[in-house]
Amino acid sequence: MKIGMIASHYPHALHREEFIARVHQVAEVFRGTPGCLSADCWLSDDAVISIVQWESDEAFAASLAAAQEAELDLAYDEREVRPREIVRVVARS
Hints:
Blueprint: E1 3-11, H1 16-31, E2 36-43, E3 48-54, H2 57-69, E4 80-90
Antiparallel strand pairs: 1-3, 1-4, 2-3
Helix pairs in contact: 1-2
């Protein structure tokens, strides 16, 4: 069963480019883990959005563990205007 995640980040304008770079770094780590089908960065007027697909819950967990091991900057802090919105989705065939 495919698993997906859509994460919307709302950085202050001053930090927008930094957030784009952060999302690309995380996507690169995710794509390097077995079972990650895709990891992309999308932009809207006010958000930096990551959309990721995995082939299973196990692959999802492996990607999250890899991101933690890589010591990426995943912190929510004052660089963001409002809290992140993270939605986990499941594909139904």
